[in-house]
Amino acid sequence: LRGLALHVSHTRVRPSTYERAIMLLRATRQTKRGITQIPNKNRGFSSGGAYRVLQFHGDGVGPEIVGAAERVLEATGVKIEWTRMDMGYETYERTGHVITEDHLQALEDTKVLFKGPLTIPPGKNPYTEIRGRKFTSGNQVLRKCFDLYANVRPAKLFPGLKSRFEDVDLLVVRENTEDVYTGEEKWVNDDTVEGVKRITRKASTRIAKKAFELAEKAGRKRVTAVHKANVCKQADGFFLDIARDVASSHPLIKFDEQLADSLLTKMVMDPSEWDVLLCPNLYGDMVSDLAAGIVGSLGLCPSGQYGDEYAVFEPCHGSAPDIAGKNISNPVSQVLSGAMLLRHLGEPEAATRIEQALEKVTVKGGEYLTPDLGGTGTNTAMTDAIIAEL
C-alpha cells in the first residue's frame, strides 16, 4: 500500500480506477497467511527467462528429498535454472573441504540457495576456515558470510495427520547470527570451557522489525518475545528492551513477553494460543523444533533464512543418515521449503498450489504418507501423489 501511494503521488497523470485496482491487486497478491513471503528484490533470470537458483543437495537423505522437491517445483510450471554443487560433510570426507570459495561465489551470483540438510557430527566436526575467518560448520559459513539474520520457521498442522492438537499455525522468527551460536569458545583450564553469548542492538533490532513485518504481511495478530531476562539480565534484558521499543511502532499488533522455559510448557498444553514467536538464536532453535513435534514431525516444517540480499531455503530437520537410500524419507519439509522459495521469487500462486496439493495428500493417508507420518508409503509415492494433485 505504501508503494501504491508513492506511485500515485509521483504520477503526473492520475491513474484510472482500473489501473489503481490492478496495482492494488498486485500488491495484495504477494502475501498469504501461513508460510510467509519475503520478496526477493535481487533475483536473477537466465537468458531463457527462468529463475536462477543455486542448489546443494546436502548429506544423508538430502539428495532424495531435494530431488523430490525439484520434481514438485517443476510440476508447478515455474521455470527454474538450477546450478548444482556438492557441499557438506560427505564432500569433506571425499575432498577435505565442507565448503569452498566456489560455493560462496556461486551464491553471490544467484542470490538464492535451495539446499538439503547437512551432517554435522558432534565433537568430530572440523572447523571450516574460509575468507580469513573460522566457522563451526558449513551452515554457519552461509549465515555469517551472507548475513542471513532472519531464520523463519513456520509450523502448521496439516489435515489428516495425527496430533494431540487442532488449529496450530505458528511462525517462529529466530535471530540467526549471534547469541551462543557464534562458535566463540575457549578452554580456561583443563576443567573449564567458556562460551560467548553475544546480543547486539543491530541484530536484535532488525530481527524484531522482521517479526512485526511478517506479522503484518501475513495478517497475524500477535508477536511474543521469548527470553530469559530473569537470569540473563543484561543479555536477554537488552534483547527484550529492543523488542519493546520496536513493538511501540506497531500498535495494531499485540505484543507480549514470555520466559523461554515456561513457553515450552505452555506450548505443549495449548499451542493454538501462540502466533508469532520472536526469539534469540538458541531459544528459537529449541522452540521451532518443539513446534515441529507439536504438528507431527520435523519432516513437516520448512525454513527460510533471509538477509538483505540473499536467501537460503532448507528443511528444519537433519540429514538422517540412518534412513538414507531407503526411499522412506519424508519429502514434505523440503517441498514446503520449495514453496517458500517460490514466494521469495514472486510466484505466490504456485506456492499456494503446492500447499493445497499437500493438504489433499495428507488427508488420504496410508500408502501416500511416509512412515514418520504414520503411513506405509515411500518418498517416491508421496512425491508422486503431490504431483498428481498439482
Question: Spans with pLDDT under 50 lasting ≥5 residues?
Answer: 5-16, 26-37
* Average pLDDT metric: 88
Q: What is the N-to-C order of secondary-structure elements (H for helix, E for strand)?
A: HHEHEHHEEEHEEEEHEHEHEHEEHHH
Percentage of residues assigned to helices: 40-55%
Describe the sheet with the most strands: 10 strands, mixed
**Rg over CA atoms:** 21 Å
Shape, per Cα inertia axes: globular
* Subunit organisation of the chains: single chain
Structural class: alpha/beta
Give an overview of the whole structure:
The protein is an alpha/beta fold and 390 residues long. It is built from 13 helices and 14 strands. The protein has helices at residues 2-9, 17-28, 62-75, 89-95, 101-110, 138-145, 201-217, 235-247, 260-269, 281-295, 332-345, 348-364, 379-389; strands at 51-56, 80-85, 112-115, 128-130, 133-135, 150-156, 169-175, 185-189, 192-195, 222-227, 254-259, 276-279, 302-306, 311-315. The strands form 3 sheets. A 10-stranded mixed beta sheet has the order 2-1-3-14-13-6-7-12-10-11, sandwiched between helices. Helix 9 (260-269) packs parallel to helix 10 (281-295), helix 11 packs antiparallel against helix 12 and helix 12 packs across helix 13 (379-389). The longest helix is centred in the middle third of the chain and has 17 residues, at 201-217. Residues 5-16 and 26-37 have low confidence and may be disordered.
